[in-house]
Structures are given as structure tokens and as C-alpha cells.
Amino acid sequence: MKDVITELQDMRYLSWTKTRKSSGTAGSFLKSYDDTWEKKKYYKLSDFDPVKGVVGHECINEIIVQRLLRHFNIEHLEYKLIHALIEVDYYEYETWLCESEDFKTPFESKLPLEDFYLANKLDGESPFEFCCRFGWNDTIYGMLVIDYLILNRDRHGANIEVLRSQKEHTLRLAPLFDHGLSFACRCHDEKELSSFDVMRDLKVQAFIGTNSVEENIKLVPRDFIASLPPVDPEFKHELLKDLGYAISEPYLDKIWEMIIRRWEKLGNI
User: Fold this and answer.
1) 3-state helix, strand, coil in the chain (%, to 5)
2) pTM of the model
3) What is the total count of domains within the chain?
């Protein structure tokens, strides 16, 4: 599957200003959609500054994590990274954006896992125990492994969703999505990047477990980790293919260093 479109696409028809959402830090994460397709398409930008334009690289992170999830055969939302010309507040920008499609079936509704948990949990039952009771163990194990490898800072209770169909009487966890706030996402220049410690256990938002990915990975059984396809040096080319068009090689090298070193440590935790 081709998940990087390097040819510049004219996407100035998209409207971003109506869907602006504050990130809680400098800049914003802007979103848009196009419902003229058979399946509605959603778009998002990396961290956007109204003066400097797109300053983040969260969209590139999404593609890298997607390829890692694909390697591990973990269900996930499929993204495309598109080289695009866009317009925001009457200014044009050449940038890279993410495109995805609605993952719900026609009869499904979605709600945040946090809301579903609060409405259905047993007394004293943790979110992790709750998910295991519903038989979602392997999805949660895979999520915790990924979040450890990429140092995901943003797995709050609305970044995991439950899909429910009353007509078909089904209930399932949605495919994993929204992994942009990971890796060296707060490094915006070479100096910050060179000093970034890929093994540091930063405080994270995590609805399941604690605010430490190192602690959360201890919830995953060893046999599950042993069943995953290995991450080895040969995988680097497949993981980072075509992304040099969108971001610098030092940044990609730092991401690979994080993944391979954390993978090597995984067996010793």
C-alpha cells in the first residue's frame, strides 16, 4: 500500500479554520474533512503556528507508527501522508498532511473508552482490568507495546474508542489511531534533536495504566511480546521509506534509534 504521496497536490479547497482545535501549547492542530467521496475523508495537519505555518512533524510520525503497527499485525487506522498545497486564513502553505477514512461500519456508533468504562465498570475495576473482562486483551497489549516503543504522550481516554452496533449486536475496540505526539515531537531544531534522550521515560497521558510507559509495559505478558515479529536493522528501510522527502535524515535517524533501542530493551523489562 502506498502511504506517501510525494507529488504536490492542490488541496486549497479544504477548509481548516472552522475546525481549529487548541493543542494546549503554542500553535494548533488543524483538522478538515471532505464528504464528497463515497467514504468521508478526514485530514489533519501537524502543529500549526499562525505566523510560521506548519512547525510540527506529527503527521510524519503517524506514518512511521502505522508501518510499525502493520509490521506487528495490530489493527489500526490507515493514514496517507500527502504533499499538499493548502490555504489557511487566506495564506497558502506547502506542507505535508495526513488523510484517513472513517473506520466505522454504517451501523456503528462510537464513544470514548473512558465514557464506556465509567458507565459499565465494576467496583474497584481498573481500565486495564475492564478491557480484559471484555476480551480486548491483545489489542491493549499491542497498544501498550507500541506506546512504549514510540513514547506516546497522548493515550487519554478519548484516544481509544469503542464501536457499538445495536442492529448487529456487536461491540469492539476501534482500530488504534492518533499517534502523532510521540518520538521527538517537541524537537524543532537540530540542537533540541541532538540532546533528546530516546530512552528517557517522560510523563505521559495514559488512560490505561500509569503515566509511565515503562511501568505500563509491565502489564504485557512476556509470551505476547515474544510472539511479535522482531524489529531488526533490515526493517529500517521499510519503516522510513520515502519519508526523507518530508523531514530531515537526522530526525528519521533519531526515530530509528528510539525504536531499535527500546525494542532491544523490551525483553529485559
Assistant:
1) 35, 25, 40
2) 0.93
3) 2
